């Protein structure tokens, strides 16, 4: 250890001593807070379940319950804050910081240390600055010399005289070096050389400049990021969320941020990053889950299912284009604008088998409203009238003899459940009336929900009518008539194609001025290449107040033919009606070794821009089998010892994955087959189709059957590229017979080819 390192270690020791002293204080406060929470909770008689149908006067006036609730919420919050402080201190006690900048400002030199969170001593001196603090931007962006950083009160310029990086483990500096680079290679080498983990790690110590631009952008309404495989898009999303939460602590909470992720495995994989940065996770959802929730009762086709079907069925390109382009959105707008009231399709509202509100009745209400109002406004008023009518009907029904009889037949528990928190009535007649009212409300809640959700409009018929309109508008009557027929047939089986789900929802929302969540302030869409423009338009519509960060890689287009960034940016400006859109391109790939990245990029027609981070490993291996097929070769490979911790066998389809997994199990090789419903990678050897491996990474990847037969289409090379780019350290490809055409054409020096089982 040289003198400089000794000096730095002394400082680390000092800071850790301070941290430990504060840990003792926080632990003590936490103990006290915990006791208080338990005492308050003990007093709290839990009962106040609030009726969503109509908040009863009685429960509204129950001030005591409200007060108790607030008290519980307050003590729980105090405890949570202390827990969070405790967790932060624990992390800092292991590694208080990872970076240092020496700066001079107004002839005053100073050294600032950057870590996971800020830490101050008793005199309020900053011993560590949070990596998100304005001054920390220098660490990520600045090269030595004059540097400027942004603060809430404007730009400040200082002289950066030195930049130092540390690796600190268990309180000991294990590595330390000075650099003029933004964040130098050595630390990154170390970070990237690690074995893969079940959870993604945070990258705050080694954020690269261009990633930092994404993380710290607060200027734009839409940030569009095209980043090659492994360039840190997902990492950028997560550190950006942490950054935004830190900077808008008062206005923004994690619940106001939504991330659309590609699948459930991915959601689990990234679940630890924000907690490791001391922040709560944002909301996460897949497009399929989002659509399912909005089209209750229908089986919405998933993207995966669409992909699997497209492997065997030919869908006309013209239809795909018509259903996924901006044209569809503009035509939906035009359709709604020109709709005459007589074009509206109303529906009966049923309870069990009985029509409660007929389509005819709803139409009458609608027709009575002033034609000067827009259709959306008239539908809203129709809805309100129906709700009022329902309430009147129910009030009347609640007093009927038949309901009195039904309530009297309830068990004691059922009756008590109706009374809920209102069990202390002085007057029996009032109690009975209350119970009867609750009873009918509960029974007819589905009707209320149906009206609330606009089921008095037959949105399916309306959408079918739109398809006809659209066919005429784009001169494709026959094609759209065929589409309409498939749509109606699927509907009979309670199914809806993904291609129809989104325009149908858009139509519903446009007509009823509904379906918008105004609370969400930031929307993140990962794997943007998997979304059609119509779907992106719908998400923007669903979250009108959200700023958007849209990231992906056009080259990893599994589900649709890829577009280019400029085309996408131009269309998004039109669709989102904004010019405040910035595009950022990330061309450096960090995940894989240089050998794997160079091999992967050679598969792409437009791969030239991809640059590999310099971390070396073995050349990828292509195993060409003879007549025995891929499986015996795969088995032999898996039986050989390996240094890699995790191995993924990645196939093109779920069916292939199931077959491979089954055969491995027969051969007594423990493995885990992943399906779309799985949330967690459970073993070190997994078998999965490529679309479930999106966003994930493994130490070793085995691409199963990259033959010309299995990967026959010219666009299939993108699938092999996506598979290859999941590998961090080792890549093996197996092909039975001639290999995929693009693969056959790449420079043979980029991989080792072995012919086995001749
Ligand atoms: N600045 C960095 N420091 C350390 N590791 C990094 C950095 N940037 C990226 N990585 C690592 O590189 C890998 C790929 O990152 P990430 O998954 O965020 O990329 P991506 O662009 O979303 O990839 P893909 O599109 O292929 O799924 C991860 O292991 C991540 O931790």
TrEMBL record:
Binding site for ATP: 227-234
Alphabetized InterPro entries for the sequence: DNA_helicase_UvrD/REP, HelD_bacillota, P-loop_NTPase, UvrD-like_ATP-bd, UvrD-like_helicase_C
Keyword Cytoplasm: no
Alphabetized UniProt keyword annotations: ATP-binding, Helicase, Hydrolase, Nucleotide-binding
Domain (UvrD-like helicase ATP-binding): residue spans on this chain: 206-593
Gene3D superfamilies for this protein: P-loop containing nucleotide triphosphate hydrolases (3.40.50.300)
SUPFAM superfamilies per the UniProt record, alphabetical: P-loop containing nucleoside triphosphate hydrolases
Keyword presence, Nucleotide-binding: yes
Protein name from the UniProt record: AAA family ATPase
Native species: Periweissella beninensis
